[in-house]
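FORM 7B: Structural annotation worksheet

SECTION A. Query
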Amino acid sequence: MSRDVLNSLRQAILDYDPDAASEWATKAIDAGLAPNDILATMTDAIRQIGEGFNKGDLFLPDLVGGADAMSAATPIIEEEVQRLGTHTDKTGTVVIGTVFGDIHTIGKTMVATLLQAEGFTVHDIGINVTADQFLDGVRKYKPDILAMSALMTMTAPEQRRVIERLKDEGLRDSVRIMVGGGALTQEFADSIGADGYDPTAPGAAKLARKLMGR
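SECTION B. Predicted structure
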């Protein structure tokens, strides 16, 4: 019975079905399954989607669909974790967003989905995110990594502004910072004091694991 519930949850994510994913996540909790086991099943499904994307068998809509289904189920599991007062196995926690002045979402969404596939808990705070909003995200979620995207040359300097604000507020040493986007280079990332840079979504996911020492 337990295996059937988990298999159905996994299939809901592979089918990009948020409603079914939410339903089966609830059933998994009602069946008394451990949150870690439920999350492991969900992560396995999103990892399969990510691997398909990396191989060229799946495409951006598949990543987005899988992410939507995963996002629908995750709060249900997190609520159970809080109720039980337990901890979940995870690679780390990431806050991710596209910087202020930039409304591009595709690259950020790809990275967020592949980070989930690597076992990270991901808090996507959206696009056009101000420095204050990034700082609020760091304070609220206490992430291991802050990931910032900038696809336009004119918005790339905003990443520097966020890092400087983190320093001013005494938060810089509490979080690793990775940056990416079409407007960036390794030289620019180094110049603003980021901890890591990668131009591709799969590379960013691997970089995150490296920053965590995994």
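SECTION C. Observations
The mean pLDDT is 91. Residues 115 and 205 are 5 Å apart (CA to CA).

SECTION D. Sign-off
Analyst initials: ____
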